């Protein structure tokens, strides 16, 4: 085992603090990664504060990991020392269920093993990317193409794949009108990706405060959801709406913006339950759906797509001792658009 420095929350709602953790010895099919950068996802805050239920402490968050391979096990065939790699939201799955076998490990019927706040197959808690190093099975590691800088690539391992997957599944592309709800860490990636896929892209945000940013990122249109006229003007407009907001929304109002057979897909995960009048979906044969990250193969596909189109996250690089401040700024929507920790400062 290897002792490494990390930032952890010692208890629910407690500030994160510098500590040390143990990483397992490199096994036959394992890859040891020197973490260079780790993104801060809103879900890190949900979990540190137990917003999604009881959690495991101490907790080392972080599932947007970019780094360099420093050691490989004797059976590893996919990576070598020096490779630029990433790790996303999961580090294992059963690998044998129908979902795993078709490359959708995120929907493993036995439950995937999350990168942090989970229990690995060895029975030990998993610790995430706010740390110096991580050991991961090679089958849950992806290659970061040379065309992507590691710092802007790190958020792609969650924010990128979380928006890429539903855009691909619901066939965003030329001739399709796509709306992205919320222009934050996920939303700004959704805009970039949908634009690169060739769709006509609209941002639906609470206000017009970030309109100039949205248009620069690739949106064709930008509307404020706080203006009732938005819902009158855009009624029946969209083939696909991807909601990235982790707060309660008026889903009936959003569904009214879909065409017949349109889909409203949620990738944001509010802590509170929602209520819905089913006539919102019955009228127009509409779909209210959800989507969770993507499989390992699709995550690699996404990274290759981003490299091909010159897409990285818009980031603010911070020191590790700024993590708690960054959490407060995320909650205040004061980030454009992803905090990334320089792990050399841990």
From TrEMBL:
Its EC number is 1.1.1.2. Residues 14-341 form the Enoyl reductase (ER) domain. Gene3D superfamilies: Medium-chain alcohol dehydrogenases, catalytic domain, NAD(P)-binding Rossmann-like Domain. It comes from the Bacteria. It is an enzyme of class 1 (oxidoreductase). Belongs to the zinc-containing alcohol dehydrogenase family. This is alcohol dehydrogenase (NADP(+)). It comes from Streptomyces mexicanus. The lineage of its organism: Bacteria, Bacillati, Actinomycetota, Actinomycetes, Kitasatosporales.
């Amino acid at each position: 085992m290897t002792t490494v420095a990390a930032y952890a929350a010692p208890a629910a709602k407690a500030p994160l603090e510098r500590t040390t953790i143990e990483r397992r010895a490199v096994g036959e099919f394992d890859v040891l990664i020197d973490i260079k950068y780790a993104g801060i996802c809103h879900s890190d805050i949900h979990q540190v504060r137990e917003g999604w239920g009881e959690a495991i402490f101490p907790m080392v968050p972080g599932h947007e990991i970019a780094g360099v391979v420093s050691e490989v096990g004797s059976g590893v065939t996919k990576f070598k020392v020096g490779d630029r790699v990433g790790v996303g939201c999961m580090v294992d799955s059963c690998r044998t269920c129908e979902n795993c076998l078709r490359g959708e490990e995120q929907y493993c019927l036995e439950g995937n093993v999350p990168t942090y706040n989970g229990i690995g197959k060895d029975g030990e808690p998993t610790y995430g990317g706010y740390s110096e190093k991580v050991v991961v099975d090679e089958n849950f590691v992806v290659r970061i193409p040379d065309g992507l800088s590691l710092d802007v690539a790190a958020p792609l391992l969650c924010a990128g794949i979380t928006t890429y997957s539903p855009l691909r599944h619901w066939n965003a592309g030329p001739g399709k009108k796509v709306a992205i709800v919320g222009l934050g860490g996920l939303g700004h990636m959704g805009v970039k990706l949908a634009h690169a896929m060739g769709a006509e892209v609209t941002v639906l945000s609470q206000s017009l405060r970030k309109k100039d940013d949205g248009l620069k990122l690739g949106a064709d249109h930008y509307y404020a959801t706080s203006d009732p006229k938005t819902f009158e003007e855009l009624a029946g407009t969209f083939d696909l709406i991807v909601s990235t907001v982790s707060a309660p929304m008026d889903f009936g109002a959003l569904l009214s913006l879909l065409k017949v057979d349109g889909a409203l897909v949620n990738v944001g995960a509010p802590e509170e339950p929602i209520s819905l009048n089913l006539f919102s979906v019955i009228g127009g044969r509409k779909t209210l759906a959800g989507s969770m990250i993507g499989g390992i193969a699709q995550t690699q596909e996404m990274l290759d797509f981003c490299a091909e189109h010159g897409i990285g996250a818009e980031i603010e690089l911070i020191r590790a001792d700024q993590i708690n401040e960054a959490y407060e700024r995320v909650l205040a929507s004061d980030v454009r658009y992803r905090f990334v920790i320089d792990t050399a400062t841990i």
